[in-house]
Amino acid sequence: TSRSWSVKEGDYDEERVELCCRIMKTYCTGKVKGVSDPVKQKALMRTSLQHYDLENKGSLFLPQFMQASHLMSCSMDEEVAALFMERFGVDGKLDYDVMVEALYPGVF
Q1: Burial class of 96 by CB neighbour count within 10 A (0 to 12, 13 to 18, 19+)
Q2: 87 with 1: CB under 8 angstroms?
Q3: What strand order describes the sheet that includes 93-95?
Q4: Whole-prediction pTM value?
């Protein structure tokens, strides 16, 4: 599976995933009070997702991921959340480290 974020023409699902990613990244930008440091934004996104990782295993189940995304001002339906799970999932759970790395490529 591709980890790229290119949107194919007519691919509505990809557009919805892309939009959700933009909303979550915008939240992380605004939350840091105008600080444009991508390292801080990336850390905030990871912390926001990790907050719902009750077992502290580095991954989230679908309901936990939906709660975490809601925390970042992004209300997504199960269909879109399932696309994230498909792309960043391991054994039916979302690996948020992989997701955060994909959303902030080249940021350490």
Answers
A1: buried
A2: yes
A3: 59-60, 93-95, 89-90
A4: 0.82
Three-state DSSP at 60 gives strand
Contact 95, 59 (CB under 8 A): yes
Task: Encode pLDDT of 46-102 as tens digits.
Answer: 999 999 998 889 999 999 999 999 999 999 999 999 999 999 998 889 999 999 999
Asked whether 37 and 53 are in contact (CB, 8 A), the reply is no
Q: pLDDT class for 4, splitting at 50, 70, 90?
A: low
**Partner residues linked to 93 by β-bridges:** 90
Please give the structure tokens belonging to residue 103.
């959303």
Please list, residue by residue across 46-63, b when 16 or more beta carbons sit within 10 angstroms of its beta carbon and e when fewer do: bebbeebbeeeeebbbbe
